[in-house]
Write a structure and sequence with these properties.
Layout (H helix, E strand, L loop, with lengths): L6 E10 L3 E9 L5 E9 L6 H16 L8 E7 L2 E7 L3 E3 H9 L15 H20 L21 E4 L4 E3 L38 H17 L10 H12 L4 H10 L10 H14 L5 H12 L15 E3 L16 H6 L21
Antiparallel strand pairs: 1-2, 1-9, 2-3, 3-5, 4-5, 6-7, 7-8
Helix pairs in contact: 3-4, 3-7, 3-8, 4-6, 6-7
């Protein structure tokens, strides 16, 4: 074992890209301590300081974000001399995969022939994501005491994880902007997935919290309708007509909120906290299957496939961890769904795998 008695035992691959691989692993410590984790490791031969810096930044940021709907980072370290991030392992599937499965199922006559995820389940998932986004924006750094003001910039079904128990996790803060000490350069260019990017971003505006609200609204429309709402063009009227068509037939409790979330004008969109509160009220009024019931019915079958074996990229199946690198940790008071009830990469390209979702979503 390493000097501090810890080793990583690699069990399989959770996800892989051009620059990095996310492994399922056991973390072995002293006195036979074992913990199941996910480990993101830069691939052998990747010598791009900006990629490594973004991985460190994402890990530091996730260390600052203490929220039930955001995956937790345990530490920054190195494995075999390569930068690595050790994270909680959350077994689930992303909502893009869920949507693919639901879209080919028979239409639901009770919902006018709709093929999307049940309304109540979608509203519950939206509430969880809005709660996480509010915590990321309003939470305070335990180091400076200042608001973190994190903007995710890539909210979409593929970056929202659903477990078999109905828990929701927001993934992939690799291109997030925020008020925290970072090594990489975010710049002010176009970042995100084009279809979910707010119209003001295409006009050169800075990314504020309203862009995440817009992306979440498009995501919820996709999940409800079981189809894709194409990215906004420069024609506001055409976009609003398409949104109105999508909203037609949806329950009244969701219609008004979703229309505001995808408003062309960012100043007209609700805050994350307001959206979370309205979604909570809408959940209480919505009929249909709950998120927990839907997840219990759909997710286990998607998790049944075995993991692919670890690739031969120079890492042995069991390897000592290098001494841990400090990552800011600490907690602020998170905004949870219960509280609310009471009160990518440059556009057009895939994000580098050096900061693919800390994923933990299974293929």
């Amino acid at each position: 074992m390493s000097g501090d008695g810890r080793e990583i035992e690699i069990l399989g691959v959770l996800g892989s890209g051009g620059f990095g691989t996310v492994y399922l692993a056991n973390l072995h410590g002293r006195d036979r301590f074992v913990r199941r984790v996910a480990v993101k490791v830069l691939k052998e031969g990747v010598d791009q300081p900006e990629i490594a810096a973004r991985q460190r930044d994402e890990a530091r940021l996730l260390g600052l974000l203490a929220h039930e709907c955001i995956v937790q980072v345990l530490e920054l370290t190195a494995i075999g001399g390569r930068p690595a991030v050790v994270m909680d392992y959350v077994q689930g599937v992303d909502l893009a995969r869920v949507l693919d499965v639901v879209a080919v199922q028979p239409a639901d006559p009770a919902r006018g022939g709709a093929r999307g995820i049940p309304v109540r389940a979608v509203l519950e998932a939206g509430r969880a994501v809005a709660s996480a986004l509010e915590a990321a924006w309003s939470g305070r750094s335990p180091v400076s005491g200042e608001a973190l003001q994190v903007v995710h910039r890539d909210i979409k079904p593929g970056n929202i994880l659903l477990t078999a128990g109905g828990a929701v996790k927001v993934l992939d803060f690799g291109i997030a902007r925020g008020n925290f000490l970072r090594d990489s350069r975010t710049g002010s260019g176009l970042w995100g997935t084009p279809r979910f990017m707010a119209p003001e971003l295409w006009q050169g505006a800075e990314a504020g919290p309203a862009v995440d609200t817009f992306a979440l609204g498009i995501t919820l429309l996709d999940l409800l309708a079981g189809g894709r709402l194409e990215r906004p063009t420069g024609n506001e009227r055409q976009f609003q007509e398409e949104v109105a068509r999508r909203l037609d037939g949806l329950p009244a409790e969701a219609r008004g909120l979703l229309a505001q979330m995808v408003d062309w004008n960012p100043d007209a969109r609700p805050t994350h906290a307001w959206a979370c509160a309205v979604l909570s009220r809408a959940v209480d009024q919505a009929a249909g299957e709950s998120l927990a019931g839907f997840a219990a019915r759909i997710v286990p079958g998607l998790l049944a496939r075995p993991l692919p074996p670890a690739p031969s990229d120079g890492l042995p199946p069991r390897i000592a961890l290098d001494p841990p690198r400090a990552a800011p940790t600490g907690a602020f008071t998170p905004v949870t769904a219960a509280d609310a009830r009471s009160g990518g990469a440059p556009a057009g390209s895939a994000p580098p795998a050096g900061f693919v979702s800390p994923a933990v979503r299974l293929p």
